[in-house]
């Protein structure tokens, strides 16, 4: 899934934007202000951020949804309308939730089969701290371009890179930021990505025109990202370097490390490249890893349980920890299985409830329209689009809505300014697609933090490509660099 995701089938014609003339901008913002206030209070004033226990963020999102529902009732919106939008939102994340369960199973089976230990074992010998972060950006970008999916990239090479980098003594936040930066660059530039197809469809341009035009802002942004990570890597104190020989010995002693184990991730990536459904590709990765565990890691399975089959089943469903004689590896070689994904799944469900109510009462459309009304200049139009995408990623918690709603609402405004539609499609991607991963309760932020095991707050500053992209698109708009205008022929068509 690109969630950027290639796993959710988006039907553009089915996307509806609910209008509500009864609702004013102040009323539309009430749920947003309360939600942001509660989240901020939880972050800054509550120790361990567990105001309501483990599921504090989830409960806050539901409270925000309840406030939005009250606002809707005061503005003559029926409960059935709100319920319909909630249901549509929940239905849209069914496949992502299934993918999350499979990613949990994948992490568990790839651990007990020796796939992840093998990736760490060989990666430690190839990737040194001095090149690790920029190399991670490039590796993630290549895989993401090939698969069209930042989600698949994180679930395969991303997990391995976090493991390798952690063993080298590099901050997990830095590693996750590098992986996410590369993954979202590749996702944006891949014709296989669903958001890369969705943005031009919303704006009214074609796919390859969109990709070529998007490269104008995307390539400089990834170059800056690589330079920054190169500088960071050059100044990293390689605390894990001296321990590499001990780490390798511990891995080799615990697991049967064999190059054949790489057939499992290669098979998953090949299936994705062949456009196999992500659920099928990931499930195949789980089954293949389970088979490899029986073949290569019989001793590991025996240590985990009296029954090899039970050990495999536990790795799929619940916590699995493999003990080695190295404390650093003990923390690394553990997985929560499907159960470990429940916190993330509950967060996504609650976010969809909040976003569904906000859409159902017409608040999303009202906020976007207010932004559109103040866009008097070309720069103002670009800025309003960026703010709208960022706001919808925060409020609706879904990057598809952050592309669809501004795409539909701003399309005519770009035409009226004489701007070619690829200006809009590029801005939607530069601000809607890439920033979704920076919001903890957005489906993308929840997924990436859950899969990589790194909280959004830890990787936010290091997801350089993602937060720099909106600034780049606004800089190009302000300086009028490569801002394409409609041709006379296009004006006649429109």
What does this structure look like?
By secondary structure, the chain is mainly alpha-helical. The protein has 2 domains: 12-44 and 53-89 and 342-493, no CATH class; 95-335, no CATH class. Helix content is 72%, strand content 1%. The chain contains 25 helices and 2 strands. The chain is globular. The model is unreliable at 3-13 (pLDDT under 50).
| Low-pLDDT segments, ≥5 res | 3-13
Give me the number of helical elements: 25
Number of domains: 2
Oligomer: single chain
Indicate the mean pLDDT: 85
Radius of gyration, rounded?
23 Å
Return the structural class. Answer: mainly alpha
Order of SSEs? HHHHHHHHHHHHHHHEHEHHHHHHHHH
> Tell me about the biggest sheet?
2 strands, antiparallel
- Large-scale geometry: globular
Estimated share of beta-strand residues: under 5%
